[in-house]
Design a protein that fits this description.
Structural class: alpha/beta
Family: Belongs to the protein disulfide isomerase family.
Pfam families: Thioredoxin (PF00085)
Number of domains: 1
CATH architecture: 3-Layer(aba) Sandwich
Protein name: Thioredoxin domain-containing protein
Strand order of the largest sheet: 1-3-2-4-5
Keywords: Signal
Radius of gyration: 13 Å
Organism: Stentor coeruleus
């Protein structure tokens, strides 16, 4: 089943769809498959997470329009406790950047489209 879910994620990315939704079953495969992925670990009840949602979606679209290769994804930690515990997520939202299957760092910049785009493009330059 996980292979089918990863295939669906791959198709969504190729079609330029916005933010990819991940689960406990798909997170590790997505991190391994995509050379550059930014994951928003969020809780649906969190006010900061709700505020981030449209910004993160606009960032995904802007990156797609720029031809960037980084996948933007999100994972609901209230439904995916295994991933929350595996990556030691304590606060929400937590945005982690992975490159070539490994955690690079937690994003600590401002949460604006411009800052996210600049961050991702800088990271892609190091691929």
């Amino acid at each position: 089943m996980a292979k089918l879910e990863i295939f669906a994620i791959f198709i969504a990315v190729c079609l330029g769809q916005s933010v990819v939704v991940l689960t406990d079953d798909t997170l590790d495969d997505a991190i391994a498959k995509f050379p550059s992925i930014l994951v928003d670990f969020y809780a649906p009840w969190c006010g900061h997470c709700k505020k981030l949602t449209p910004i993160y979606e606009d960032t995904a679209l802007a990156l797609h329009d720029l031809g960037a290769h980084t996948v933007l994804a999100k994972l609901d930690v209230t439904s995916n406790v295994i991933s929350k515990n595996e990556w030691k997520i304590k606060g929400y939202p937590s945005i982690l950047y992975y490159q070539n299957g490994h955690l690079v760092e937690k994003y600590k910049g401002k949460r604006t489209v411009e800052k996210f785009v600049a961050y991702v493009l800088d990271k892609e330059a190091n691929l």
